[in-house]
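Sharing a chain and its predicted structure for anyone who wants a worked example. Both blocks are below, sequence first, tokens second.
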Amino acid sequence: MIYREYLVMRKAVAWFVGITAAIDLLAIVLPQRGIVKVEYSSIALTGCIFAALFAAIFGVALGNCSRGAARVLWVLPVERWKLALQLIAVDLAGVTTVFALVCGIDLALTMALVRPLQLTGSVDAADIAVILGLTYAIYGCCALAGIFFRRIPYGGFLATPVLIIWMMLAQSHRAIGAILRAPIVANPIAVFNTVMAIESRQEHGYAIDAVTASLQWLGTTWEAPVLIAIAIVTCAIAVAAWQRVEVIS
């Protein structure tokens, strides 16, 4: 079953990265005037967006293991939590691969086709840790939602729009906003947005919103550990819950 997941993941990575490369190529060949300035951080952000989307898509895999051909997991002579962890490991390896390939292809196409080009800025290990932490956390949230909404095919997709709506409603200065901001540190999208908002304020003096203000205690140091913690907790709860669910006939 895990080998089957690996084969599915390998094919999905190839298709997803191919489509991403086509989109990048289309954007790059559009007419440009003057020197084109491209920041390394923008390339990393592009990789982050596509990797997060890929994570949301495959976050439903665990929940879908109780339906269709995947129901064979219920009769295998292996503890189900071990199978679940193996499946999660394959999926997260695929997410990491997508991020690396998207960034590499975007950078290679930019350097090969854009003239004249000026690459600016930098991306360090801390930035990569935050980006991967976000993608893993989104995967974990989708996996958890997929377990609780497993009777809905691909119910894990509900997690991402719920996280976005939660963050948007938390911006309100009314009572509902204060209530939603109390546990907002559990929202990986809000935590990642805090990183970008704080950096924008430091560089350009932009004002910060209510959600960012409530998460300023994270600074620019604690985002990655918090995102990794969200990923670990959500995946652990999803695995624990999956051991107790019944097969869907």
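Comments welcome. The chain has one domain: 2-242.
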